[in-house]
Amino acid sequence: MSAEPRMGNKSPSIETPRLRDDSYGLSLPDFPNVNHSYLQEWPDEERSEILLDAILTSIGRVQHFFDPRSVADRLAMCSASNGQEPPTTLWYIELLLVFAIGDLLTCKFHDRLSTPGESYFIEAMNRIPGLSHLRTSGIQGIEILGLVTYYLQCADRRDDAYVYAGVALRMALLMGLHRDSGAAATTRSDKTHQNRLWWTIYMQERRLAAATGNPLSVDDEVIRAALPRDAPGFCASEALTTNVKIAKITGQTLKNIYGSIGQTEQIFMTHVQNILSELHQISQNMPADFAVDFSQQLRVTRTSATLYLMLYQAIILVTRPILLQLARQAVKEQLQNIILSRPLESLAETCIDAARHTLRILCALKQQQLLANFGFSDLDAIFSAGFVFVLAETIYPSSHRHSGLSGIRGCLDLLQDLNSHGNRPSAVRRRDIIQMCKQLNIAESLTNTEPSGGVTIGDIEAASSVRVNNGQQKLQQETDAQVIAMEQPLHWVDDIAESEMLLGQDTHDLHLWYNHDSLDLTGAIETDWEALATEIFRSG
Description:
Layout: H1 45-58, H2 68-80, H3 90-106, H4 118-127, H5 131-136, H6 139-154, H7 158-174, H8 188-212, H9 238-258, H10 265-284, H11 302-331, H12 342-367, H13 377-395, H14 405-420, H15 424-439, H16 444-447, E1 459-461, E2 464-469, E3 472-477, H17 481-486, H18 496-504, H19 507-514, H20 525-536
Antiparallel strand pairs: 1-2, 2-3
């Protein structure tokens, strides 16, 4: 591959996004104060049911934090007694967390000064007992920690969420949930609930490790629990099982690619190939109820969109190191002297295609009014895709089919839309992408203008774009090469011929592209960008 450099070897001051820990200024109580209540009022029966249903319909098929029947029964008991749950029980805490997450998932607009559901969440946190008490409370203690983790993710407290997920995982290990014969379950329903809860906590920990660039807490080799299965009284397990499989691959990527110290070059490249092959199999075997046809205008459900977003984030995680190395060489004006092997070019194309498909899914969610205004996974996917587009635009000329400019616009527009609804972390992510573009001299006209009061949504969908300005929509044809390319199936490096090429390639060459000494990569966007920026703008 030969491409023109995007910029000369300049040395601007480095300004990199940091792993933020609190966009909303969420004020957690330092110590429990049971004599003070942060709760304004307990929701009535109708509102309680709406909040519970929001969790079940939005994330209930891909995650499982509690047995819905038990929570529904407990809410019914509260309504029957014309009151609320007594504040001295663990049920009081768990129901408050359900309300907090339900409020967050149903919120369309917020005042930006706090997180939706904050009063419920702060009251719950004020009542949570010590870890020893939570541990001895059994399964309910793990449920509570899982719910706390989810809310903290959405509140942009990823470091805190990683800590809580790790504690929940260790409690689950102590209870033996990682073994089918571990936890004491008296009924089939209990076994199903415990199994699904285990895998949900497992997924949380894997993805938060990737988001924060931190190590995993447990190896897959010690896990003996079966994947979720269908059971009477529970929703079908297909979506949850698929989500678990993707999370397992995320863990393998962190361990075998980003934590590959001591591996031989041949073993390392075998790991890369196996991971891509497993992701391809998941893509090809997506459950029929959730499969998406990318050859036509997208129609998605919330569950199908989540599964594809998780899939594409896993693909990006395993292939993005190649783009980072290419961007480093492009800025240093060395790329034009390099002819890439076909396997390396395929890895780069796979990463960019995954970002494009991510953007298509997100735009379809927006068009169908399913985009989570205050969720975590949608915002994370937008930022991840935006980072890939920034790297692509750095590597390839604007006229190239892999140019990232159109994708950058789409991601900035989506982030601005979330911000207009009161999502504060989206404004931070938007500024981060703009700052990256400015430091790399990408499209001055794109980045110099801050958003005005009007909301603009770049809906790159089936060779057309929906632009929304002050609530008025109009369909606008897009003819640039990037949109046309997005109509094609996702490029996979593990086509049969290319698989042989990848494993038959000079493993030393491929290993160097992934593990070049100049870039110390963790998988977290902020720290990987910092590593890249430090290297390319290093004085001298």
